[in-house]
Amino acid sequence: MRAIFITLLWLCFQSEALAAEVPIENYEQSILDTIKNIQSQNHEQALDTTRKLIKQYPNSRLGQMLYGDLLLAKTEPLAQIGSGLPTAQALLDFTQEIQLRWQHDTNSTHKGLLPENILFMAENQPYVILVDQQSSRIYVYRNEQGTPVLETDYFITIGLKGPGKQKRGDQKTPIGIYHVTRYIDDRQLPDLYGRGAFPINYPNVWDERKQRTGGGIWIHGTPSYTYNRSPLASNGCIVVSNPDFSNIDQYIGAEIKTPVIVAQKVNWLTVNQWRQKRGEMQQVLHSWVSDWESLNHDRYRQNYSQTDYYAHNRDFKNWDARKRWTNRNKTRIEVNYSGLNIFVYPGEENLVLMQFSQTYESNDYNVKSPKELYWHKYDSGWKIVYEGVRVFPKVGIEMVDN
User: Fold this and answer.
1) What is the pLDDT confidence band of residue 94, given thresholds at 50, 70 and 90?
2) Is the preceding omega at residue 58 within 30 degrees of 0, hence cis?
3) Do 283 and 264 have their domain in common?
4) Among the listed ranges 3-12, 214-223, 230-239, which one has the minimum average pLDDT value?
5) Number of domains making up the chain
6) Which of 73, 246, 281, 383 has a 20 to 30 Å separation from 317 between CA atoms?
7) How many CA atoms lie within 13 A of 94 on its CB side?
């Protein structure tokens, strides 16, 4: 009887159309309060909280499931949350969501810590987006004089097959450092994408170097029939609820290419560890500039990996010969940079990405360009493995990996 009742309830709320939504401010806390009350056997309080929740958020499948369980608990003991759902997969999806929300609420291990991935933020970047796929969380960090400060965070859905995208159609979410390329209004999109979308520039130059394929990776909203999707449910995109999308919109700027760092799991550092790491990488950059300006090619070339450097179809040998020839008649070189980002690259061992606007002046050539350097740490120190002009390609609408 219990299974039949919840199956009917399931079918009912699956077909509900979304009415007017209100801001998300209390949604997650209401879910967590309900779970806490259920654990304390305070079913009446849990029922009251859940009743208010689904009145405010009628398309919350998790809220509807909890409400059905609590109604049935009036006639028989509540043995397991969601035990009457029609499929084992549905139960697993809800269980994962509850666990991830609960762990985020109770996890204090990274409070007071800083993410290793963000070591320095450019003055023209007010926010950086950081995705932790393992905890189904997206963090917004604001820029305070180059230092990341947590602004807010949201629950997310990632690819059905988890993190680590390698090829088109593998239903995995990429790991890497990207930027937002544009904003797509919901009026241009099917209901699947919810309130709108921010495409990111997957695959980037590092993905291409690793021969990763695919595209159409977006941060986007949720279909109108549900408040949010389960933790593993997209075809590779990063999905937030529609109220969250409306909120996160204020922190993302397509015109300033807001950085999006997508990690499998964020590594958290103490403030002292973080400062030491940042200072180390700032010194690496300063030494590279100093060696370049010295006009000593043998000194300058020591900043580049002789074994792993590859950029623009040139390995180290080709790069070295070209640079030596280019600099042979230089009597003055001056290099300055601004708009510096320093990011530790997720999913790679000892890889750091630096992005900045570079001004180069010499006795016979001057140029200003957006630059990016990929540094890898060897036993002999940090070496450049990729150097290039930072490219911002135009991206059309693509709905393959969503």
Assistant:
1) confident
2) no
3) no
4) 3-12
5) 3
6) 281
7) 24
